[in-house]
Amino acid sequence: MSAPEVIRLSDVRVTFGAGSQATTALARTSLTIAPGEFVALVGPSGCGKSTILKLVAGLLEASEGHVFVGAREIGAEPLRIGMAFQNPTLLPWLNIRENVMLPLKISPPFRQHFAAKRRGEYRERVEALIASVGLAGFADKYPWQLSGGMQQRASLCRALIHDPTILLLDEPFGALDAFTREELWDSLQALWMARTPTVLLVTHDLKEAAYLASRILVMQARPGRVIVDAPAPFARPRTMESSFAPDFVELTRRLRAAIVAARAAPAAA
Amino acid sequence: MSALARRRLLSWGFILALFGVWEFGCLWWRVSDLVLPRPSQAIATIFLRAAAIAPHAGQTLYTTLAGFALGVILGFALGLLISASPLAYDVGYPLLIGFSTVPKVALVPILVLWLGAGSWPAILTAMSMCVFPIVVNVATGIAGTEPELRDVMKTLRATRLEILWNVALPRTMPYFFASLKVAASLAFVGSVISETVASNRGIGNLMIIASSSYDTPLVFAGLFILAAFGVGLYAIFAALEARVTFWAQRGADQGGSRST
What is the C-alpha separation between A233 and A221, in angstroms, rounded? Predict the structure, then answer.
């Protein structure tokens, strides 16, 4: 099925210059163009025909509004992704501050300013984030000087420091003891509530899923597919206390039943 | 006394004791210095004939360090190349193993044929000795980069060069330094082999001439100088290693400080 539109300008305005010398090349304009359409732009010179072409080509930046071509926004910042694994994968030759700062060094658009801001703004940004997960005062320590739980906190910070739109977590708490794990749930929940990235969390722990997620997908093997799509509509911030509430317990029981059934099913099939 | 100081003192004590056994064993059994000179004789020879020995020692040090430096550069570059693509690995590894198996003493006449007797055969022989351990270690270190770390870097849109610079190279440093320490002593082997075959200068040449005139103390003086150079170069790289790869040596550090 083809997309309903190939080009879309929404509330786009283009001005050149600044202040009293500003000239408007294109006043607020919205238009959509469907795939396969043959569209002509006509008008006197200076009316903005070429400006529209240049907007679509990505040669010119809109002063206001958005230009979409093929469902992707022109000039939009590339999607930022943060990732954390069961293994903290911190770099042992860098201290915690430098480890957490790594995405700012690599990832656009932060990298352009890394040399200028690494000792100022970025450093404060790192300090604030690691303080929020209880690592204040450990910035100068090396990963191997910290416990597993603390390393995992630092790993979460590294996944979040560049304000990712998407956060991907692959069993990030799998290797931790139960109490450390529960502490980190609260850290992660607080970080998510403050920044609201889109999160995809892979976990074996149903309580963890119900505690952290707003929606839980249960999957079945051979062939891999989603068999349950359950909301977890509990109020936030969730606490250990709330995880003993009847509806919470009922949700985890239901998920567990679905997984047990799914494990039995392929053998029968 | 700290545990570290005690360990140092003990190790030096044992090393000196070994030389003491040699020294007094020779005296006790009245070994002729034509067969086995005492360590004190070898060391005395170094100082008494310093003026004659110095240019040879300088020559050997120069060719060895030059060859070592070239070997490190070439070895590092080849290590990067080999780990960069499977094809380079498949082509490079058999060639390298083949080349490293060739006895280097057999290369010297060819090098002399090409470049004439002098410093260059010694430099190139020293280089050829160094290359293999460095290539293997650099390639091993880079290949060992955790795939998850690569994934983290890729999701940050890091280029291959950025992954290499920020992740793969730093994690290769412990391997690299391990190979440097091996290569440093191999470089001396290479330059001295070359000097004994075709040169009129260098410790190797000095030892060949001394042994042909039954000047055994001078031969041993040459050996002692080579050993001292080797230990010195090793110590320099060990110190450098401790600074650069401190993060990989925490086990050893804790071992030293645990009992303090």
Answer: 27
d(CA A147, CA A165): 29
Show the domain range for A114.
78-199
pLDDT digits (tens, 9 = 90+) for B203-237: 999 999 999 999 999 999 999 999 999 999 999 99
Q: Per the structure, how many domains does chain B have?
A: 2
On chain A, the residues whose CB falls within 8 A of the CB of B149 are: 89, 91
CA A31 remoteness from chain centre:
30
Q: Assign residue A137 a region (left: φ > 0; alpha: ψ between -120 and 50; beta: otherwise).
A: left
> Quick one: tokens of A56?
């679509």
Question: In A, which residues are within 8 Å of B152 by CB distance?
Answer: 83, 89, 158
Q: Please tell me the pTM assigned to this model.
A: 0.76
Classify residue A65 as exposed, middle or buried by CB count within 10 Å of its CB (0-12, 13-18, 19+): middle
User: How many residues are listed for chain A in this entry?
Assistant: 269
Query: How many other CB atoms are there within 10 angstroms of residue A164's CB atom?
Result: 22
Are B131 and B6 contained in the same domain? no
CA distance A14 to A48: 9
A81, A86, A87, A90: CA torsion to nearest 10: 30
**B156·A91 Cβ contact <8 A:** no
Q: Are residues A191 and A238 in the same domain?
A: no
Question: Residue B5 is encoded by which pair of tokens?
Answer: 């100081």
Q: Which of B133, B143, B126 is nearest to B75 (CA)?
A: B133
Q: How much is the ipTM here?
A: 0.77
Same domain (yes/no): B193, B77: yes
Farthest CA pair distance, chain A: 77
Residues B203, B226: contact at Cβ < 8 Å?
yes
Q: Phi, psi (5° rounding) for residue B239?
A: -65, -40
Query: Which amino acid is residue B249, in one-letter code?
Result: Q
Tokens of B19: 């030389």
Mutate to test the interface with A, among B151, B152, B176 (most CBs of A within 10 A): B152
